[in-house]
Amino acid sequence: MMDEDQSGEPAADPLALMCSWLPPNDDHSRPMMTLSTIDVDGYPDARSVLLSEADRDGLYFHTDSRSRKARQLTATGRACAVLAWPELGRQLVAQGDVTSVPAARSAAVFAVRGPYLRLLAWANTPETALLPAPERRARWAEFAHRHPDATLLPPPTWIGFRLRPRRLTFYRADEAGPSHRTEYRLLGGAWTAALLPG
Questions:
Q1: Of residues 20, 25, 2, 37, the one with CA closest to residue 168
Q2: CB contact at 8 A, 73 and 37
Q3: Is 184 within 8 Å of 167 (Cβ atoms)?
Q4: What gap in Å lies between CA 150 and CA 122, rounded to an integer?
Q5: Every domain of the chain and the residues it spans
């Protein structure tokens, strides 16, 4: 597939282009993305999360089922994610529908998370958050001592979501000219493309 960078024309397959911009799923250095959801009052809510995986079906991420974002995603089934590479002058925006991920797939992601993040999924509870910092650290140290190799199974609160894009926007900076955006929309099962100012 020819990228717009080379041809000047929209890509024939925006999902393949999305995947080409993202690291392979076996790269343990996962990128951060800004995830925007909608709260019960209709206001946007945003935070940074790790991108767990990506494929032609969408973007995958994981969180605690007790979190505000999990409640919002379950209620609305919609979200928007932004990934940025300032050093490359690139930004990717994906808007779409969100569904939960099967437990087996979420467990596979948990298994390759680093020791700190596996501990965090267990120890960073609402009850712990209410404690003073020294007590939080003591509770963390005690849990880590009991699980020195962090070979933990996912906690019951570990949940995964998939964002299936219905709109993809690729932004590119250009030192020799104006920045540029290509926006793809999924309409009637087919992707349409629009070239937009940066």
A1: 20
A2: yes
A3: yes
A4: 10
A5: 4-113+154-197, 115-149
In sequence order, the β-bridge partners of residue 165 are: 96
Pair 122, 143: CB distance under 8 Å: yes
Per DSSP, helices labelled H in 57-191 are 68-76, 103-112, 115-123, 126-129, 133-146
- Residues forming beta bridges with residue 186, ordered by sequence position: 191
CA distance 46 to 71: 13
Structure token pair of residue 40: 């019960």
Give, in degrees to the nearest 5, the angle at Cα 182 between 178 and 186. 165
Contact 80, 45 (CB under 8 A): no
Note the pTM of the prediction, 2 decimals.
0.91
- Beta-bridge mates of residue 7: none
Residues in the chain, overall count: 198
Find, among 52, 63, 66, the residue nearest to 22 by Cα: 52
CATH code at 4-113+154-197: 2.30.110.10
Residue 115 pLDDT > 70: yes
Measuring CA to CA, how many Å separate 91 from each of 77, 121, 174? 23, 29, 13
Structure tokens given for 72: 């919002």
Neighbouring residues of 43: CB distance < 8 A, sequence distance ≥ 6: none
Q: What is the pLDDT of residues 49-104, one digit of tens each?
A: 999 999 999 999 999 999 999 999 999 999 999 999 999 999 999 999 999 999 99
Helix, strand, or coil (residue 107): helix
